[in-house]
Amino acid sequence: MGAGHGHRLHFHGHSVVHRAPAHLKVLALLAFVLVVVATPRDWYAAYAVHLAVLVGVIVAARVPFGYLLPRMVIEVPFLLFAGLIPFIAEGPRVAVPMPGGWELSLSESGLVAAWGLAVKGTLGVLASLTLAATTEPTDVLRGLQRLHVPDLLVQIMSFMVRYLDVVTGDLGRMVTAMRSRGVDPRSPRHWPALARTLGALFVRSYERGERVHLAMLSRGYDGRLPDPEPTAGAAR
């Protein structure tokens, strides 16, 4: 279980952003997210500035936008939720003309809330993906240690990074087995079978975690993990 697991988000490069110390990049990401969250929803020009700063960092990192954009699919559930807000929010409503001569009645406050949720979420996700694309997972963990993040949290994140590919592989094999038996996970008719599969995956992952913990205890684990081998980014 090497430290290179979880590298699917990392884009290999040698730019100034890649070479920057990991703990400084984590602090920069935290500051950026806090500024974005604190920006009032109706300060539209400020969001253009936030986006320009983020695009500048991505260009300096030489990470193709075509590499980052497909990975933003993780944001889709939040965007769908944001899209529902104008329909269910209360307050003054505005009529939006639609093709065919009919109109959509949308809440004005809901539109503003949906805009705020979508733009803040998009900027946050894009900034996080930029950090992941320019920093090896082990460097991020070392950066968190340098920032004196509680060791238990760092260990949890370390195991998440190490075993993400393992759990994803298990899920892929279980879905393949479902399809071989004629079950389509995308069909609502078969969602009960999918739910049972996800439950089995949870139990299997929990039991694997128990076995790994017992193995660590048998090898003298005392609550602290040995330092991983330093990488080029972490050595700075």
Automatic annotation (TrEMBL):
Membrane topology recorded in Swiss-Prot or TrEMBL: Multi-pass membrane protein
GO biological process: cobalt ion transport
InterPro entries found in the cross-reference section: ABC/ECF_trnsptr_transmembrane (IPR003339), ECF_CbiQ (IPR012809), ECF_transporter_component (IPR051611)
Assigned GO CC terms: ATP-binding cassette (ABC) transporter complex
Keywords for the protein's UniProt record, in alphabetical order: Cell membrane, Membrane, Transmembrane, Transmembrane helix
Subcellular location per the Swiss-Prot or TrEMBL entry: Cell membrane
Keyword Transmembrane helix: yes
UniProt superkingdom: Bacteria
Membrane-crossing segments per the record: 20-38, 44-65, 72-89, 109-132
Location (main, coarse): membrane
Protein name, entry field: Cobalt/nickel transport system permease protein
